[in-house]
Every structure is written in structure tokens, then in C-alpha cells.
Write a structure and sequence with these properties.
It holds the Pfam family Peptidase_M14. GO terms for molecular function: metallocarboxypeptidase activity; zinc ion binding. One of its GO terms (cellular component) is extracellular space. It comes from Aphanomyces astaci (Crayfish plague agent). With 365 residues, this protein is α/β, with parallel strands linked by helices. It is built from ten helices and eight strands. It has one domain: Zn peptidases (Aminopeptidase, 3-Layer(aba) Sandwich), CATH 3.40.630.10. It has an eight-stranded mixed β-sheet. β6, α8 and β7 form a beta-alpha-beta unit. It starts with a helix and ends in a 13-residue tail after the last helix.
Length: 365
């Protein structure tokens, strides 16, 4: 849904109080004053959208989930979980819910498993950085689209792998973005969760606590990352690939972000093929490459996942140039991520050099 006069008024009012702090960054770089001024607080605009696009739960129907009015607005955590929980109820043989971790404020972080009975799986997560609402809406649109494809007998990534979705990693920070701190990036403990994963390298310029990328006192110091890691360890050997969804920039990034040294053994070339395959289906404005060619960062999830589990892990930086994007971009970016996930499943099989072997059906995680 698009807003006309209402949208314009809200954007003008918000722009008057837009932050001009260089701590506002996209793919980990300081931004210009013009870029900062383009950020607006679109919280109330979306609350108004909720009023105009409510009561969508009764109309949810298999094969039509991705066209639901749910996707007309950016949604709160309660709305997000209500939506996916309804999909679980309507698809009990395909979809199940599980707790994957806890937050600093002791909130439960939920995951969802979409299964057709395979022995191998893929893992997708979003909203490590709370303000990147489009990453959350895109993972939800992707899940809805895959369920639609299954209902409509179309090929999906679920034909080859079971799929795990964690839509809101930084649940505390996400709540903050809906309650007065729209551009909150870090957790409620003011730690950048996407710097809290282990790395063999020491950051030569460690950021202080007040910095936007403060990694915490040590790897896994935060309950969010520690809990997710514990769960991932329990799936060792099962999960064959990982995607961490962020915004913005129009990028598909792979190992490594913390070193320029090649991986070797033909793996760099495998990542290059994987990246090219994903960007080819996500749109002409996407590019791919090793994360370090764009910026250096330490303790990011994909680097850790690849090193620890020896399986391909990538970051999707959704296209765009601001965090506070219009609701009209939800299906556009959602489709891009959905296409990326679908291609990722194909590329992972080639990358890992093995066949996917199904087992008896199960909907448990």
C-alpha cells in the first residue's frame, strides 16, 4: 500500500528532526549528512498503515500468503509472530515453531522450521540489526512465498532442504525501534550482535562501548548469540548453508570480512560462483564479492558460520539507500530475497559437492 498526502506530511515532519549523527551507518561506514537527513521515523506512519490493513488473519489461505495485507505494512513483533503462528496452524505437517535463544531482557527468540522430511537443511536469519525492518519483512515474504509455491505445486528450495527461519534475532532492539528509538542498531545491552561472533583475528581498532559496532566484552557474551550458537551446534552436520539478511546496499557478501587472505583450495572460486548465481536472480542492481573488498569487520555471523561448520554462509544486504523505506518496497525487496534464497539452495548443493538425501517426513526441529 502507498501513502500519498499522509506519507508526505509524515516524511516532512520526521525530516525536521532527522538524526545527523555520523554513527548512523549502512554497510558499516559513516554516511554523509544528506544520507542521514533522508532517514525519517516512519513508526507512526506504519501504525496508521496497521489501522488501514488490519483483520488479515481470517483471510489467510494457503497459496495466497504472499499477497496478504500483512505485507502492506512493516509489522510489530506481536503481529509478526501472530502471522507466522497462523501459518503453522494452517500447515501443521510443513511448519513448526521452536525457541532458539533468549534476549538480554529474557525475551524468547523464535525460529520456524519448514520441512518436507529432508536430512539436510538451510538456515536463514534477519534483524540482527534492529533498525533494518526491510530485512525482517523480506524473510517473512520469502517464507510466505515458499509456502505458496508448495500449495501451488511449484518448485521451491524446500524440495531439496528443510528450511529454518529466524525472523527477529535482535528482539529487544526491534522493540526499541517501535518505541521511540527508530534507528536502534544494537541490542538492548548496546552490543552489536553481528560483531559478537568469534573471529581468529583481533580488531586493530577496537570500538568503544558507545560505538555503533561495539562487539561486547567477548564473543558470545550476549544471550542472543550464545543461544543461537548452542542451537546451531546441535544441528552440526545437518545445516548445509547459512544466510544472514541485512539492509542496505544491494550486495551478496561472502567470506571473509576480517581478512584479505584467500581461503584457498578452490573455495574462493566456489564462493564466487555462488555469489554470481544469487545476484543473477536478485536483480541487476545487486553485486557480489568477498566482504573484505567493501569493508573490514570482525565477529560477523557468516564468517563464524563458515569457519565453524565448513558450509557456505553469506550476507544479503538488501538494495536501497536508507533504513526507513516506504511500505511499497516490501514485496519488491521480499521477492528479491525470495529469489536469492531459491538460488542459494541450488548453489549450496554444487558448493558442497554432494547430493541431498531425503528422509521420512517430520515437522519437528
Amino acid at each position: 500500500m502507498k501513502f500519498s498526502l499522509l506519507s508526505a506530511i509524515a516524511f516532512i515532519a520526521a525530516a525536521a528532526t532527522a538524526q545527523t549523527n555520523n554513527a548512523i551507518v549502512d554497510i558499516d561506514r559513516a554516511r554523509s549528512l544528506k544520507e542521514e537527513a533522508d532517514e525519517v521515523d516512519n513508526t507512526e506512519l506504519n501504525r496508521e498503515c496497521h489501522k488501514q490493513n488490519g483483520n488479515y488473519i481470517p483471510s489467510l489461505k494457503a497459496g495466497q500468503y504472499s499477497t496478504s495485507a500483512f505485507h502492506n505494512c512493516f509489522r510489530t513483533s506481536d503481529q509478526i509472530y501472530e502471522f507466522i503462528d497462523t501459518l503453522v496452524i494452517q500447515n501443521p505437517k510443513l511448519l513448526s515453531k521452536f525457541a532458539i535463544s533468549k534476549s538480554y531482557k529474557n525475551a524468547t527468540i523464535y525460529g520456524y522450521k519448514l520441512t518436507k522430511g529432508h536430512s539436510q537443511s538451510l538456515y536463514f536469519q534477519a534483524l540482527q540489526h534492529a533498525r533494518e525492518w526491510i530485512s525482517g519483512s523480506s524473510i517473512l515474504f520469502s517464507l510466505a512465498s515458499i509456502l505458496d509455491d508448495i500449495a501451488n505445486n511449484k518448485p521451491t528450495a524446500a524440495d531439496e532442504y528443510d528450511l529454518y527461519f529466524v525472523p527477529i534475532v535482535n528482539i529487544d532492539g526491534f522493540e526499541m525501534t517501535w518505541n521511540g528509538t527508530r534507528l536502534q542498531r544494537k541490542s538492548a545491552n548496546e552490543v552489536d550482535l553481528n560483531r559478537n561472533w568469534p573471529t581468529p583475528f583481533e580488531n586493530p581498532n577496537p570500538p568503544p562501548k558507545e560505538h555503533w559496532s561495539y562487539p561486547g566484552p567477548e564473543p558470545f557474551s550476549e544471550p542472543e548469540t550464545a543461544g543461537i550458537n548452542k542451537w546451531l551446534q546441535s544441528k552440526r552436520g545437518e545445516i548445509q548453508g547459512f544466510i544472514d539478511i541485512h539492509a542496505y546496499g544491494g550486495l551478496v557478501l561472502y567470506a571473509y570480512a576480517d581478512t584479505k587472505k584467500p581461503i584457498g583450495g578452490g573455495v574462493d572460486e566456489k564462493f564466487e560462483v555462488l555469489g554470481r548465481g544469487m545476484k543473477s536472480v536478485m536483480g541487476a542492481k545487486y553485486t557480489s564479492g568477498p566482504a573484505h573488498t567493501l569493508y573490514s569487520s570482525y565477529g560477523v555471523f557468516p564468517d563464524y558460520a563458515f569457519r565453524e561448520f565448513k558450509k557456505p554462509a553469506v550476507t544479503i544486504e538488501i538494495g536501497g539507500r536508507v533504513f526507513t523505506v516506504d511500505v511499497s518496497t516490501i514485496p519488491i525487496r521480499g521477492l528479491q530475497v525470495y529469489n536469492g534464497i531459491k538460488q542459494f539452495a541450488k548453489e549450496v548443493t554444487v558448493f558442497n559437492g554432494r547430493d541431498v538425501t531425503p528422509t521420512k517426513p517430520s515437522c519437528r526441529d
